[in-house]
Every structure is written in structure tokens, then in C-alpha cells.
Amino acid sequence: MGGIGDYSGSLVLQMPIAQKTKIELTLRDDYQCHIESKISSGEALMAHVDFRHYLDGYEVDYLFAREKFKSNPAIQWISYIIGCALVLQKEKGINFKGADFKLTSNVPLGKGVSSSASVEVATMKALTEAFDVPLSGTLLPTLAQRVENLVVGAPCGLMDQLTSFFGEPKKLLPILCQPDQIETPISFPADISFIGIDSGVRHSVAGASYGDVRCAAFMGYTIIASSLGISGEELQSAKSKNDFMSLPYRGFLSNISVQQFEDSFIHHLPSSLSGKDFHEIYGVSLDPVTTVDPNKVYQIKQCASHPVYEHNRVNRFRNYLLALNESPWQEERIDLLIKMGELMDQSHKSYSLCGLGSERTDEIVALSKNTPGVYGAKITGGGNGGTVCLLVDEEGRISARSIHQQLCEKYKGDFMLFES
């Protein structure tokens, strides 16, 4: 729960899957980087590059490096790995002179289950150990996110990297994404499971729709701030200083309560607005990793509404889960599961209204309705395909496997099933 609310400061609840990414690292001193990758599909990839090719002279410049990676699409995948060395060189002063990287991973690509975050976190851990760089708290996943935002060029939030680093098996990790407040992981009853069904539709946070939805949410925040008398100059000053504490709601849409939003702000938000008109009227978006395109039309109201309502949904979901853990009464437990499932359904519908749904994930959610033992289902992560998460009891585990089998037979695919 939470998903795309992370970049707007929402509480999220995330659970790691069992699959893992492993990096073996051997340092070199000739600036050469040899990368071998064996991923879940069994596909083996190899690349050999000169690290200096991604430096602007002797310096790390993220935009320069990003353009270099994009100029060679066949090996652009190495940006997730070499990008870690670039970020550590720029941010922590390591003297990187090349390395042999051997990556093995059974985290499937394009399924909405944080495959890129797992690569970044694993590579960061290997490099920080090799160079004896001490990183405490949430700094390692934060630097891993910087790789994806600034080197790869994907505008993801921080939850995937934090979950890859801090997540515990069979527990939901609460993260208040403002930006990285980790809370105590929450267990759930042994007879309850969260099961992921692969839709077979490839997901990518680098896709245009995800970036547009994120961009529209930040545009919505600017419009709300403007309604409160905050000027574009004040927003630009806060953005340049990376200091949002003085701004309304500390710069996060999720800090607006549903009641405040409905009473005071939603009527200020246009259903849609062109980037050109936004620039002329408001000028500034706080988002450091998306750019408002004057030639696009953005769905402002829905994309800005989603994190407000999602933050509320996730808090309620957590409260129901905590009550479920304490309740000895079967009727009460079923009632709580139904309420949790309703929140998942609302979240799924909100994704679709933002433009991040897909026919296949909608089909999985529809198949799960009125199915024995399945209480709720929703698209996960960044949307646009990927994986659907089901909340099930013991009977529902059988139902989920049946739905999975139906999909594999209907679409002639070997789609994955993620079981907790």
C-alpha cells in the first residue's frame, strides 16, 4: 500500500519478496569495467566499458553521464551499476578506477517488484564495503535512489530502495516518505498472506506515464500553495535550498488531510492543464527530477488527489492490520480483512484514474472479486502493468494459484507468482 504516494510524502507499507540480487566485485586500477549479468530469465548480458567515458573530464557530472548511457541503448542497463560508482565518487569521494562486476539476480525485470532498486542497493553495498565507506541510517538507499533519479533518469520515489535495504520477510515495512522515516516492521497473522500475481505486462518507472503522473502531482502542490499566497519566488527559493519545512504542509501533498483537501483545495485544481499554461500562471514545480513539458496536458486534479487519499488509506490499512493481529474473534477478523480489501480496491481504482492502470491488471483484480478467501487486490509499485497484490487467507492462497494458472493458460505465458 502507498505506491506512487511515496514522492508526495505518503506513508507506505511494503514487504520484500523472497527473490534476491547478488553482486560480486573485483576492483581494478586501469579504469576498465567489465560487467556480467545473469538475470531471472536466464539471459546473460555482458558489457566492457572505460569508466572515464562517463566522466566530464575528471569530474562526475550526472547529466553528462546520463546522456552517455542513453547514447548506447544496447548497454544502457549498466547505468544501474556504473551509476553507483559515479554517485559514490561524487558524493563520498571514492577514487574508483574500474572493477569487474558479476551480477546474478532472480528478481524479475519489469514486474513492478523493484528489480532496479535491488541492483542499486546490492551494488552500493558491495562498493561501500570495498572502499570502506561508512554509511549509517538511510544513507545507502538514499544514494541508490540518486543513481536511479540522476544517472538512469527514472523519477522513482525512495520506497523501493528503502524496502530492498530494510525490509524483513513476512513483515510489512512502514515508511513515512518525508523522505525516509522508517518505522517498526509489522507482522501479520500466519493464516494471512500477500500474494503477487505477475500480469505479464512489463512495467517501467522510466515510462512517460509514471513521470507525467508524478509531475502532475507536484504541479497540483504548486497550485495549492499559490491558493495560500505562496509565490513562485518562495517556491523556487525552497527548491534551490532543498528546504521545504517553511512551506505549507512541508511541501508534501500527503500532509493535507482529506477534510482540508475537500474543504479548501480541491476546487482550486483544474481537471487538466497544459504545461504551457502552468508555466505562464504558476511557473515553478518543486520536483527535482521531472520537468513540466509545455507541450503536454497534465491531469492535475486526480494526480494531486491520489496521494492525499492514499496516505489516509494506508494509515487506515495499518490500523486495521494492527487490530487484526490483536483480535481473537473470527467475525471481527473477517470484518477487518474486508475493510482492508476495500482500501486496496480503492487504491487500485485511483491508480487507474491517474492513468497508471492496465487491462491485464484490471482483469486480475476482477478475477479476484467474489473469489473464496481473497479479500482485496490492487496493482503495485508504479503501475502500468507489473504485479497485482492479493490479500488472502489459506483458502485464498488456493484461489490465487488458480487465477495465476488461468492467466498462464489464457495468455500462453509463464508468469510468476510471488508468495509470502
Structure description:
With 420 residues, this protein is of the alpha+beta class. It is 44% helix and 16% strand. It has helices spanning 62-70, 79-92, 115-130, 139-152, 159-166, 208-227, 232-241, 258-265, 275-281, 300-326, 330-354, 359-368, 394-411, and strands at 11-14, 21-27, 32-38, 44-50, 99-105, 171-176, 181-182, 186-187, 193-198, 273-274, 297-298, 374-379, 387-392, 417-419. Strands 1, 6, 7 and 8 form a four-stranded antiparallel beta sheet that branches. Strands 2-5-3-4 form a four-stranded mixed beta sheet, covered by helices on one side. A hairpin with a 4-residue loop joins strand 6 and strand 7 (181-182).
Give the topology, please.
Elements: E1 11-14, E2 21-27, E3 32-38, E4 44-50, H1 62-70, H2 79-92, E5 99-105, H3 115-130, H4 139-152, H5 159-166, E6 171-176, E7 181-182, E8 186-187, E9 193-198, H6 208-227, H7 232-241, H8 258-265, E10 273-274, H9 275-281, E11 297-298, H10 300-326, H11 330-354, H12 359-368, E12 374-379, E13 387-392, H13 394-411, E14 417-419
Helix pairs in contact: 1-2, 2-3, 2-4, 3-4, 3-5, 4-5, 6-10, 10-11
Shape: globular
**How many E strands?**
14
* Percentage of residues in helical conformation: 40-55%
Strand content: 15-25%
Q: What brief labels describe this structure?
A:
420 residues, alpha+beta, four-stranded antiparallel sheet, four-stranded mixed sheet, 14 strands, 44% helix, globular
Give me a quick take on this structure:
The protein is α+β, with helices and mostly antiparallel strands and 420 residues long. The protein has helices spanning 62-70, 79-92, 115-130, 139-152, 159-166, 208-227, 232-241, 258-265, 275-281, 300-326, 330-354, 359-368, 394-411, and strands spanning 11-14, 21-27, 32-38, 44-50, 99-105, 171-176, 181-182, 186-187, 193-198, 273-274, 297-298, 374-379, 387-392, 417-419.
